[in-house]
């Protein structure tokens, strides 16, 4: 008898557990339609912020957060590191099922949160931006660069606020370029010529140039020809083939290369195996460390009309209380303050998102980093991946397609059939 | 008729609950999700559409083929080398425990860490292996960045990584063989080869069967090795795309969890079938 009772108790406990976990899966959709934005936080409020920052990026973020908490004693910001961007994306993806466990705000690419936006799980930031007390009064008054704001929109709604942004730039070995009498290239034709010269003059020991991101290479190559990244692109069309052939021919002849499985060319660059490479401005600290005193390096705008703006924005989820949302917005606004932006940009290599800071003397005069001096010129024309269905997947799918084509070129074989295969993949990536 | 003691249920309850919640429920959920489409927060039933998608997706077949090649090459090769090494250490070498520990070390080291070391060894520009190959005037392929080499590199890595566990288990089995068999064999003047084929190997069959099953299932689920060797990607041009990598990609990057779960279900049945056939064959061999 005793045993039966125990068994029954165990069964009840199990049932309770299952029903509990079932409960946590439901609910949480926006119940508190907080039309009124509190302009002051009088009660103790805690907000959580999921991020993917490491090293000096994370320590600077922690410091800025501490300063914010000192100024706003009622607000506590819990910073929660979720690992790499890929980990952060997976964590968000899986937590979207149980919205109660979502943070108040998170770093994210807009493409990750399209479904969340469709399901009305995100907070539209416009009322906050336009609120003259808690926000800036208007988007214009915020002084945030317009293209960056536009890049943080989903379905034309301002869900995100740009925060840690970087752009593609050209890094070059100044010592070597001077030695061979090569000028820093300012367009793609010059890049090709400069690379050929370096490769020839070094007797094939030093490769001319390469691009870290093959996806950016293709997307920007097309954009420079006036073609936006969309499912309408004809992958085997003349323009597309022109873009591909430019790089592939260089690889075949030896004056261009790709990063391969290393992912970045900064390693080859600091070992003087390659003279120039195009990569993110946020990677400068790695270049600096690798190069040390071996030679002098320089940074220049990407040798093309457009450059890619990349990096995440900050998004807010709907399930927080009105106070939490207001507090979170105050925190975001604080991070985007002039002083904070200057500290952030100098310590991390990310670009300031405010026009006034990017153009300020204090920023440009930074002697530790070579990016600031070139930034204004480099950011003239910014482009970002359009936030549309499968856009993210199609962009990521460009890597294997390009790698496949360039692997043929490296072996000296024809890459035409690889482009044809690429077309099939490219189209199926857009239509899944 | 044997009767299970009813009390046993009580003692088994904690683990039964854990297994149900964390192992059985996810399997059932995967089955259900494989018949649904749309994003994870708003999934709708769409019948067999996910299965139709994966069966007509060349990438899926490429991933399955890669996984099968990896499993059916790595597992037997690793097992043969393990048997040879274990036998060698057991019968020919002094300070057995030292070598046993040495061989076991890779098993307790993180795959990611080993992957980083392998990346240095296999690097096409600065790698140790290519340096040695060039020194003896052999062609030095680009192990990591040439798509046609990816699976070969992965198999090399897989064989090396599975030796540790196999050798330790086999050493245990070798110790359990009754030494009197060998004494008797020596009395009748059996050669080393005869002793190995007639005594050692037959005695090892149950252990080998176990290792074959465990290794095969593990090989079909390969993911970490690919991630470690190719720096978080499935090799250049997705040349080392495996089934689990495909599933992860469809779930997390492309955001089509239904497709990912359909692929999971297919992989589940492939592993089930492979294990079933393998058990049948070994049973036949044993009898």
Automatic annotation (TrEMBL), chain A:
Gene Ontology CC terms: cell envelope
Record keywords, A-Z: Signal, Transport
Signal sequence bounds: 1-24
Main localization (coarse): other
Any Pfam family: SBP_bac_8
InterPro entries: Bact_solute-bd_prot1, SBP
Domain of life: Bacteria
Cell location: Cell envelope
Recorded family membership: Belongs to the bacterial solute-binding protein 1 family.
Protein name: Sugar ABC transporter substrate-binding protein
From TrEMBL, chain B:
Domain called ABC transmembrane type-1: residue spans: 64-278
This protein's UniProt keywords: Cell membrane, Membrane, Transmembrane, Transmembrane helix, Transport
Signal sequence segment: none
Keyword rRNA-binding (UniProt): no
Entry keyword annotation includes Transmembrane: yes
Gene Ontology cellular component list: plasma membrane
Pfam families the record matches: BPD_transp_1
Bilayer-spanning residue ranges: 9-28, 68-90, 102-122, 151-174, 258-277
PROSITE patterns in alphabetical order: ABC_TM1
Entries under PANTHER family matching the protein: ABC TRANSPORTER PERMEASE PROTEIN (PTHR30193), INNER MEMBRANE ABC TRANSPORTER PERMEASE PROTEIN YCJO (PTHR30193:SF37)
Homology family: Belongs to the binding-protein-dependent transport system permease family.
Protein name (record): Sugar ABC transporter permease protein
Organism: Lactobacillus rodentium
Gene: ugpA
